[in-house]
Amino acid sequence: MRIFNVSALLALLMISSSPILAADSYKVDSVHTFINFKVLRSGFSYVVGRFNSFSGSATWDDADPAGRSLEITIDAGSVDTGNERRDQHLTSPDFFNAKQFPQIIFKASQFKETSVEGFDAAWEAAGELTLHGVTKPLTVVLKQVGKGEDRRGNFNIGVQAEFTIKRSEFGMTNMIPMGGDEVTCYVDVLVQRQ
Amino acid sequence: MEIELLEQAAIYAVLIPGIPAALALLLAPVRVQPFALALAYFIGDTAVRGWPGLPPADSTQWLPWIALLAGLLGSVSRSDRKQQGQPSFLDLATLSLMALALALILIPAFRFAWEPLEGAGLLGLLLLGSSIFWFGIRNGKLVEEMPAIRTVLLLTTGIGVSILTGIAGSVVLAQAVAVVATLLAADLAIAWVGRKAPTTNTQPLYAVLLAAFFAAAWYFAEAPATAGLILASVPWLAIHIPGKFGLHRSTKTAQIVALVIALALTATACYLTISASPPLDMEF
Q: Which residues of chain B have a CB within 8 Å of the CB of A131?
């Protein structure tokens, strides 16, 4: 009776753990990942910037959409527009308020296959964006740029996305319209299998 | 477009709090005026930064709520007189409110940046600076002879903190401090027109807000700590230095010397902030 119970338990464990084993774990390669944005300034021109400090991870299962996730955490204080004074202003309470809300987090857990011309694969990644202490749903289209082993034998997946958010929806209401409300983000992410 | 924004800033930081402040000073009974001015501050802060919420998402937006407590304290305090060498109830209550305000606005520092011991030490130093500021406006022969000088020095400090915060990089916080300066200016203007002394027992409201705003400018907008220390010592130095040189014999001379000292120290604090900030070679 005891032998039967142990065998049944082992079988159950093997069955229930098989999808988890199939999903691979990935880490965001911060050297080859770029999180850029642009925002209209005074109606005349765009200010273009990037975040220099972030980290992230992903799980990916080719066969099972439920085994896919992506999480990127950005250090709000690492905003870089190429001008120290402007960056200080952007991290101040007028904009990102980086000491009050130090992290910008995007978590996606639902990936739906889609197609985009010019790309082998693409997914609608639905999740939540936390910015300035406010969390809102966000769906972005991730386009697969490349996938496979690099020269060192590491397995990589590279994706890119372009999306627009309204900063006012996240409580960043100061200096609109001098600094535009709509912020267009250009994200190139490389994840490496662990 | 920038001019429009400046006009909006002037409306939010000056007109919106200024009108209820003037009404409070003209119509409310003297005992109620500190709380009425705190309400005017609440209205002004809300116009500048939006409804604070309770608890606020942004820790610096505890200040409108703290202002109401400070106003209430001013309104219920029967007298600010105290025995020589002993802190009064008003002193202890105000210092407690300052400690509460500093602890609340610095919640993110404790959560994300400071170790507990480091945070306790820095909070202690901030409270020490705030105490110097508080006792500076409380004591002195010049204040006894000419109570209006206290409001003048608070106004100078308030304008200084506002400018310094703007230079350090936060226009929004600077506008919120400008709301405090507006209340002080309204207080002085109505006293001057009515040929009377400015309101009494409003010091807890002004002192708590100014001390907390400097701490906010230092931590959230990275204003230099030295500038804050200079501003915190403005009332004490401006009131006591004239006395040291025997200038208190003539109240008028002492007032002029006090004002010159206050302006010089405020200008020095602003200069230090400009020096510590990245070069102004752009506009947003």
A: none
Could you tell me if residue A79 is inside a domain?
A: yes
Spatial distance between the Cα atoms of B73 and A183, rounded to a whole number of angstroms: 45
Find all residues with CB under 8 Å of B59, minimum gap 6, and list them.
Answer: A100, B104, B105, B106, B107, B108
Contact B56, B107 (CB under 8 A): no
Q: A40 lies in a domain?
A: yes
| Chain centroid offset of residue B232 CA | 9
**Of A42, A97, A99, Cβ closest to residue B1:** A42
Give residue-wise pLDDT tens across range A98-150: 999 999 999 999 998 888 888 888 999 999 999 999 999 999 999 999 989 98
Give the containing element (helix H, strand E) for A75: strand A69-75
A121 part of a folded domain: yes
Q: Which residue has the tokens 């700590």?
A: B225
The string of pLDDT tens digits covering residues B147-193 is 788 888 889 999 999 988 888 888 889 999 999 999 999 988 888 88
Cβ–Cβ < 8 Å for B157, B266: yes
Report in angstroms the alpha-carbon separations of A170 from A96, B2, B245. Answer: 10, 23, 56
Chain centre distance of CA B185 = 12
Going by pLDDT thresholds of 50, 70 and 90, the confidence category of residue B211 is very high
Secondary element (H or E) of residue B157: helix B148-168
Paired sense of beta strands A179-193 and A34-41, if any: antiparallel
- Judge whether A102 is closer than 8 Å to chain B, CB to CB: yes
CATH of the domain at A137: 2.40.128.110
Q: Is residue A54 part of a domain?
A: yes
Residue in A47, A86, A178 closest to B5 by CB:
A178
Domain containing A174 equals 23-193
Domain count of the fold of chain A: 1
